[in-house]
Amino acid sequence: MGKIIGVCNQKGGTGKTTTTINLSSYLGLANKDTLIIDMDPQGNATSGLGIKENTLAARSIYDVLIENASIEESIVSSSWPGLSVVSSNIALTGAEIELVNMADREKRLRYSLEAVKEKFSYIIIDAPPSLGLLTVNVLCAADTVIVPIQCEYYALEGMSKLLNTIGLIKERLNPLLDIEGVLLTMADFRTRLTLQVIEEVKKFFKEKTFNTIIPRNIKLAEAPSFGKPIYFYDSFCVGAKAYLNLTEELLQEKIDILIALQKGGI
User: Fold this and answer.
1) Which long-range contacts (CB under 8 A, 24 or more apart) does 162-167 make?
2) From CA 192, how far away is CA 147, in angstroms rounded?
3) Alpha-carbon gap, residue 140 to 37, rounded angstroms
4) What is the mean pLDDT of each run of 10 residues along the chain (266 residues)?
5) Does residue 87 contact residue 38 with C-beta atoms inside 8 Å?
6) pLDDT at position 229
7) List of domains in the chain
C-alpha cells in the first residue's frame, strides 16, 4: 500500500511545488511508482512537469473532489519514469465553496485516494498556500507531511497556525497523521542569516528537521519553465544533488539512477 505525503505550508514561496516535483521524480527514478496530486489551483506542479492543458485528461482534481469523475480516470502519465499526475486548474478555486455543503467535506480527497493507494508506492500531494478546506483535505488524506521552510527572516512566521491545524486534524479527523520532516529551502550559505535560520529551525523542530538542506539555485528556478524535473534539466547542479539526497534520506537507501533509466528504456 502506498504512502501518502502532503507537502504543506500556508506561506507562499517556500518551495512546496519545487519539492513536490523533484522529490516525486527521484522517487520515480528509484523505481517507486509515484503519483502527484496537484491540489493548488495555480496548477504549477502540473505545468512544471511539462503537462500541457491540451494533453490533459478531461478531468482534474476538481472533478474528483466534487464527484464529477473518479480518481482513476483523472490520472495522466507524465514523460518522466514512474511518475503520474492528477492535474489541477483554476476551477479548483471554486471547490472550497462547493465543498462546504457536502457530506464529509474534509475527507473527499482521502476517500477518492483509497481506490488507487495500492497501485502506487508514493502519492505526493502539493497543497495550496493556505489553511483552507483544500489543505484540510490534504491533511486528512496524508499519512505524513513535509513542511518546507525558506531560509529567511520570517521563516517560522505562521508555523504555529500550521502546527495547530495539523494537531487539530490529528485529534479529530486523521489520528495517524505525522510530520515526515521539516525541509529547509532556498539556503544561501554565504549569509549569516541562513545559518541563523537553520540553527533556529533545528532547535525548534529537533529530529523532525531533515538533514538535507535545499540551496538557493537558479537551475531549480529555471527547470519548471522548461517543464522538467531538475534531474532532467541539469542533473549535475547543486539543486539536483540536494533533492537526490533528500529522496535518499526519505527512503533510507541509495538510488542508482542509471539502472532505473535503463529499466525505463531512457
Assistant:
1) 162/8, 162/9, 162/10, 162/131, 165/131, 165/135, 165/136, 165/139, 166/139
2) 23
3) 14
4) 93 94 97 96 94 68 91 93 93 86 91 96 96 95 97 85 94 96 95 93 94 97 96 96 97 82 60
5) yes
6) 98
7) 3-263 (3.40.50.300)
Residue type, 98: E
For residue 4, which of 138, 122, 108 has the smallest C-alpha distance?
Answer: 122
Contact 11, 147 (CB under 8 A): no
Cα–Cα separations (whole angstroms), residue 132 to 64, 96, 113, 135, 211: 18, 8, 20, 6, 30
Beta bridge partners of 126: 7, 38
Report d(CA 197, CA 71) in Å as an integer.
40
pTM: 0.94
Residue 142 makes CB contacts below 8 A (sequence gap 6+) with 4, 5, 6, 125, 174, 177
